[in-house]
Amino acid sequence: MSEAWVYLLRCTDGSLYTGWTIDLERRLACHRAGTASRYTASRLPVELAHARPMPDRTAARREEARIKRLSRADKLALLRAAQPRGTTGTVE
Questions:
Q1: pLDDT digits (tens, 9 = 90+) for 42-58
Q2: Dist. CA 4–CA 7, nearest whole Å
Q3: What was the pLDDT predicted at 82?
């Protein structure tokens, strides 16, 4: 089991939210309940677009910071690259 996760959420307004956690299911439940962050609380519902396991908390925080610095286009490219081959989910 991974010690930490970096994740991207797709908000109802189409924006992307990046975060990290040590308990992905609990954090997603908090986002969906509107108690995890003010940003996502005002953009419900949210859906998990991508989650990446990380070896430790430090790596997760660094990866979160790296992703947050990306442009929207680069974040969408990251999501497309992470999408399993043969799936038809939209990323835009």
A1: 999 999 999 999 999 99
A2: 10
A3: 85
| Total tally of structural domains belonging to the chain | 1
* Tokens at 62, concatenated: 């660094």
Which amino acid is located at 29 in the chain? A
- Which token pair is 77? 């490219």
Read off the CATH number of the domain in which 9 is found: 3.40.1440.10
Instruction: Kindly indicate the confidence band of residue 85, based on its pLDDT and cuts at 50, 70 and 90.
Output: low
Q: Tell me the two tokens of residue 52.
A: 């990446």
Predicted TM-score of the model (pTM): 0.86
74, containing H or E segment = helix 72-82
Domain interval for residue 12:
4-82
Beta strands in 1-92 (DSSP E): 4-11, 16-21, 46-54
| Residue 44 within any structural domain of the chain | yes
